[in-house]
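Dear colleagues,

I hope this message finds you well. In preparation for our joint manuscript, I am sending the digalactosyldiacylglycerol synthase (Hibiscus sabdariffa) sequence together with its predicted structure, so that both groups work from identical material. I would be grateful if you could confirm receipt.
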Amino acid sequence: MEKGSHSTAAAASTSNPTAFSFISKGWREVRDSADADLRLMKDRANSFKNLAATFDREIENLIQSATPTFSVPAIRQSSEIDFMKKLQPKISEFRRVYSAPEISRKVMEKWGPRAKLGIDLSRIRSAIVAELDETEEEDMLGIMEFNKFRKGRRLRFTEDGQFGDWEPIRALKTRLREFDKKNSSVEIFGGFKNSEFVEKVKSSLKSICKDPQESKEVPPLDVPELLAYLVRQSGPFLDQFGVRRDICDKIVESLCSKRKNQLVLRSLADGEPPTLDSDKINDELDLRIASVLQSTGHCYEGGFWTDFTKHDVSDGKRHVAIVTTASLPWMTGTAVNPLFRAAYLAKSAKQKVTLLVPWLCKSDQELVYLSSLIFSSPEEQENYIRNWLEERTGFEADFKISFYPGKFSKERRSIIPAGDTSQFIPSKDADICILEEPEHLNWYHHGKRWTDKFNHVVGVVHTNYLEYIKREKNGALQAFLVKHINNWVTRAYCHKVLRLSAATQDLPKSVICNVHGVNPKFLKIGGKVAEERELGQQAFSKGAYFLGKMVWAKGYKELIDLLAKHKNDLEGFKLDVYGNGEDAHEVQSTAKRLNLNLNFLKGRDHADDSLHGYKVFINPSVSDVLCTATAEALAMGKFVVCADHPSNEFFRSFPNCLTYKTSEDFVAKVKEAMTKEPQPLTPEQMYNLSWEAATQRFVEYSELDRVLNSEHDPAKVRPNGKIIAKSLSMPNFSEMVDGGLAFAHYCLTGNELLRLCTGAIPGTRDYDKQHCKDLRLLPPQVENPIYGL
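The corresponding structure tokens are as follows:
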């Protein structure tokens, strides 16, 4: 019994050290594990603290960058503020997410021996991008306590389940409060435009839409770009088939959709509103094609019939040459209006002006001018022209007057140029050319192409030739042919065409604008009439009158028809008629046969004193393009009774202009004018009738201001300052077609038989010996068979 108990005690004594050793070893392992856990937690806490400090520095830099260091243009500032408003951080959302009590529990659950510390940055990004309402700040309070056990350490929560006020969280919270105080878009984003982020965005946009010229290698043209260029250059050709220009622009815009997107990106990068128009797309297309051609080394030097050798301004002044089809003392619109245009263009002293008028031999002068006004030399006629002009303008105009050979056509009642008219403008002065009646001047033109010799050619259409031709025998057929010939020559020889009214033929490259004024003498007469009326004096002592060249087409047919139809309605109405012309005898005999109350008198100047006393001017003509006599009558303060016709569109805004649509309406307007008094003209109305206003309109609508101010002709300057030098770098389809038309016209007009068949005066391809004698010219040279040489 003892032996057994002894053995049991011995075993127990032997096992006790083993048990205590095992327990001690277990406690050491627990202690070491706890120490390792605590070290790991400290490392994790330090890592989180460093991350918070880094975030704190970024916020501090953002706050410091809020004040702008320099001023920028308003357009860029506003656009960048709008752009950054979309990225405005919502700090309250960040606080709401990371200050919740649950975050402490989630963080501690992840803090284990194998846990990895991380912050959900996607929530920060969502807080910056998403536009959510700010919420009230919640207290970020937590208590972290570590209670050491006797044989180990254990992590536990307090009863409220939150962390203690940990230093990194407290610092982050403080910084967030400071940042929230400066959360104004004006304070932050006024200077945020200078930040590195915005500059990187801009540089990225610019790199995307980098210009072809800035890149080392220019990419080749793709098929849509080639098709867009072909469609745009084929615009005049497609117009003949009824395809309008706006349709062509839409096609080009759709084909250039890729370039359009790049233009939008470039506009954003430059701080400009992303607005595009067809002109900008066309300019970009030109630049694109020109850059590709330039990269290949190609330079277009013109075709067989194209000459790019233009006038170079060497003396600092531009030269304007005005070529017309008539001259004083022939009192016609194409003689008077170009003369005033030359005077007022030269008055500005910005450019030198030359007026080129036809010279007629003595035999032709007797057919056109009055018998008492026959000139033996060009100098004598030039003195007459200058004296006449100075009497009416009141100033001495400084411009040159030159002459070219011409012959009078009885059938056409007009002067036809003889020889090459362009050669009478020296090459050193061949800069800008104004063709008065371009279709008339070029019907039988056989010489240098105007657009090759001059930098800019403007045509001014004075006469509605189709209306005159329709009145002749086989008029419809002739009008059809003349219409297409006019289109041909104006397109081949002009860069721009101005039509005085819609009564003219619709020509290529044309716009409608009244670029004529009235003689200043008529405005003075109108001012005198207004003064007499203010003093209570009777300004008008006579009734109605009509003035015009006595040919049927100048309104005499319409006048006699109206008076004959309403002879009873206008009983007692008397009309004085002033005029001379080829149809004078026939007109007077017809009026006498119909027993009309018309008093025919010889033609005279509209400013003559004998015409001042008339109150009403009657003008029933519908063949005029823009009746100069109508404008002069309005300037003198008279009533004007005229037809409701496109030629009178400009005058409708004047209260003294009474237009009629029917013959019955004509009777009513005449009676109204005879019983009432005209209104005095306002200063604005007088200015609109003046040559100063007409010259301003001419410079604008003819694009003369752009040409005179351009230093890079024929290049086109983009709004950003870049020059698109396209004329000498690539062919233009429209110019090639125009050149082909000019070459064909040159060949046809060189054949004397074809000239005679189309109504040309015999011997007008070259000037004759009498012209050589009068103008002291050399005999015409034998022409070179190659066009333009």
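For the figure legend, we might mention the following. The radius of gyration is 46 Å. The first strand starts at residue 144 and ends at 148.

With kind regards,
E.M.
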